[in-house]
Records
---
Amino acid sequence: MDARPVTSERRARVGDREIRYHDAGDGRPMLLIHGFPFSADQWLPQVSAPPAGIRVIAPDLRGFRGASDAGREPDPGLEGATMASHAADVLALLDHLGLDRAIVGGLSMGGYVALALAMLAPGRLDGLVLADTRATADDEAGRAARDAMIALVSEKGAAAVADAMMPKLLGATSRRERPALESVVRGLVLANSIPAIVSAIRAMKSREDASPWLPQVACPTLIVCGAEDEITPPRDSEAMASLIPSARLVLLPRAGHLSNLEDPGAFTDALRRA
Ligand code: MLT
């Protein structure tokens, strides 16, 4: 995540909006979906050094923006967005790219979207990657916390969301050994608009419990989780692994919630075997 120009960046008009995405590497297509409230740029470590034999495609979800996209017209259709509508957007990008099937993965909120996609269109999956995420829906306390976050961002903007989330986004090892990562993460958050953040919080709050459906996942599934993840801790990954017949669980000891940024080498190495 340095200052070199990002040559993997692409734009395509797909349906009712222009999608910005990264596309790098050669081989089996793997589409990676970012978490909340970030953008495709969350995947720059994997995009700049894709796993051997894998083509990494990483789109912005509807509403979300990387820094290079600042100032553009907001995406339409943010009102009423759901995990399923984000999954439909991802499928439309695969169609646009002429890809009938791909390995689909996501981190945290991206994992919720990947699970929604797997439920919508299991035949499009060559594999599933669930990173630092969970299958269960929000409980009552979780939904109340979403309402508080909507109030916070509406009143004080994206910076307040970054401040509120930061203590739990990075694991103890990163906070101690890679303090500069905090400003990278903050930059990802600040590129986003209040309407995009609010729309995503509403979509996460209303998502369904995917757990009952996990035993039907038939494709190879890699579950990755930072051992120091305080937002979706390893027990959430272990619960998914116990329900998905083909699951393989990899815990990354030196990473927290943003495991692909905190220990990119180990994360990318895990992807190589997805
Ligand atoms: C994320 O990292 O995408 C979010 O923290 C997920 C969530 O809030 O449920």
---
Amino acid sequence: MFRFDGGSGADICLRPEGTAGVVRAALGGGLLGELPSRLFYYGPMFRRERPQKGRYRQFTQFGVEAFGPSHPHADAEVVHLGVRVLEELGVLSKTTLHINSLCDAETRARHREALLTHLRARKHLLSTESRDRIDRGSPLAVMDSKHPGDRAALSGAPRLLELASEPAAARFRSMLTGLDALGVRYHVDHSLVRGLDYYTGAVWEFVTGELGAQAAVLAGGRYDGLVGALGSRADVPAVGWAAGVERLALLRAAVGAWTPAPSAPLVWVVEVRNRRECSSGAVAELCLKMAANLRYAGLRVRYEHFGDTKRQLRQASSASASVALLFGTSELRNSTVTVKNMRSGDQTEVRTGDLDEVIARVKAAAESRDDSGVRG
Ligand code: HAM
């Protein structure tokens, strides 16, 4: 924390990151009344760190936070948004995605005891800071340490995912299936625990070898307890990430220019289902892939993993989507997608393999919308 005496008894603390502030602003400003709510932010952050290349006391972050979606595929989609940002900046190939899960409270408690036992038996190897952590009963941060003695003590230490409860393990597997479906490459890193206390599930970092010790350029995770902890009566599932602008600029120094996509039609991917159940299985994977492919084609795409067909179409309509793409079991059987023009209500079936045709239908629907003077 960058905390100092501001004079006249003023105790000043500058914000070290954006997530907690976004949650407070969203709670105070009523932005969580209607879920899901997807927010982004940009601005200066401050940390009392020892400055060096890529590590500053004042730096700039931009970040995204999704409130409401709890499905592990939503985690995969949020990670994929990071992939696309890095790709557009031309630096993705210079990074590796490290990913781990902090599992659930039950697993974390079991892991904490096992890790404490392991590290207490090797206390003589530990740095003073890590010894303090052991004495305070909070050993998780030791896993993050770069100190050679700490690294030696951690050899053979118990891993969170090896002690994971079945629901936590299944959640993580499902997220990885989503990443696989999206073609995102990752490295499961059992030592990744992140320095912030609010994480409750998947955590990840895009790490680069080009910036010396300051390796992470974009990082985040799931934090289902923070909204409740900051005063909401109901818990709100949340997932997001932030990226360091200066580190991205340093990383980009060696790479070429990029052009941002112009404003594009909005497409709503709808998973056809009757009950209010979470998405899973082959139809969900088809939705994930279609959403990703259309984003690559430069379209704006939303897919909410939640709610019955009617609810999803209502959301599409209130967001002024040009088109809804409906996927259900019959579409899966026939390898088709139903393209619904949200203005006229017309529906046509297109083969899912024919992406060009899907895109052409979306563009035609968007143009007919523009002609009518209707605006989102
Ligand atoms: P973080 O990993 O602490 O996460 O910071 C995110 C990014 O900010 C880092 O990957 C790095 O690029 C940049 N950064 C951090 N510290 C510095 C520094 N001293 N100098 C330059 N760049 C820096 C968070 O802040 C979380 N709020 C991310 C998040 C959002 N989790 C969930 N939602």
